[in-house]
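To the wet lab folks,

You asked to see what we're planning to order before we commit. Fair enough. Below is the target structure as tokens, and below that is the sequence we designed to fit it. If anything looks off to you, flag it before the synthesis order goes out.
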């Protein structure tokens, strides 16, 4: 049996400390941000669209910073300001109008940013963030089912992230994509998908009504996988730009892009699923 000395040594193990070193900050950040997001989601279309607009503007500002630009200076300020306007237009005039606005802003930005490779990377921020922002507003605004569909998506992304974090830290094992993100493991990816399936089914039970279990779990796992792909995509982008975090606004997570990377890929996938099954039908039915 381990002695008290062994236990003390384990507690002081520097590798163990590094493994869980950011857990406290993650919990503190989640305790503040999660209730805010859920409250806006539950209160209605307006508060949710406003929250999405603020998040989109913040992500765009971080994108400009990753590109080495100051987002408050002209013409770079067009990126966060324009991105913040996209979800508002999606709420007021619909997804097609918002997509048209994003395309126009990207074209205008390319001209104003210098029409070179750097300008292309800057306007890529519209391609990266705008579809998710529009999808999040669109999903929430569908009558009758919007609140539940968006809650389903949000909780799946959170559970996938938490499941991957906990299982990856506890089990470890072979790396998932060492050239892109050395910290991620295959065991963590599997744990995240299992958590996504379980939580997705739990949300469906909470909402009530008929549930096709296999279909529900499949959709949840697909969205969880899309979230993990978004995480890897953002890690690859950070490697390209040579930065550790997209920003420093969220303790334990880095920046908004670090926190919302899964949503940026999972939300468009959820919107496509919603379009395929038909408006007014819950994502898991």
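Sequence we intend to order:
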């Amino acid at each position: 049996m381990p002695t008290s000395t062994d236990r003390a040594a384990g507690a002081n193990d520097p590798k163990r400390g590094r493994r869980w070193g950011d857990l406290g900050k993650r919990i503190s950040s989640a305790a503040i941000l999660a209730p805010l997001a859920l409250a806006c989601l539950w209160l209605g279309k307006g508060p949710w669209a406003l929250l999405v607009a603020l998040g989109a503007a913040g992500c765009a500002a971080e994108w400009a910073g990753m590109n080495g630009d100051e987002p408050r200076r002209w013409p770079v300020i067009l990126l966060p300001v324009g991105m913040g306007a996209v979800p508002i237009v999606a709420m007021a005039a619909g997804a097609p109008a918002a997509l048209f606005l994003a395309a126009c802003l990207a074209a205008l930005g390319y001209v104003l940013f210098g029409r070179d490779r750097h300008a292309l990377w800057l306007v890529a921020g519209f391609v990266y963030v705008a579809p998710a922002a529009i999808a999040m507003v669109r999903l929430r605004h569908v009558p009758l089912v919007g609140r539940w569909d968006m809650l389903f998506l949000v909780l799946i992304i959170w559970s996938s992230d938490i499941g991957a974090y906990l299982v990856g830290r506890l089990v470890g094992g072979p790396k998932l994509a060492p050239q892109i993100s050395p910290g991620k493991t295959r065991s963590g990816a599997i744990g995240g998908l299992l958590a996504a399936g379980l939580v997705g089914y739990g949300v469906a039970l909470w909402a009530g009504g008929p549930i096709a279990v296999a279909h529900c779990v499949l959709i949840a796992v697909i969205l969880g996988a899309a979230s993990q792909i978004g995480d890897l995509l953002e890690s690859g982008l950070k490697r390209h730009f040579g930065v550790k975090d997209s920003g420093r606004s969220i303790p334990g997570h880095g920046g908004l892009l670090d926190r919302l990377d899964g949503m940026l890929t999972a939300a468009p996938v959820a919107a496509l699923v919603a379009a395929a099954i038909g408006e007014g039908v819950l994502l898991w039915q």
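Structural context that might help your review: Residues 145-285 form one domain. The first strand starts at residue 175 and ends at 177.

Thanks,
Computational group
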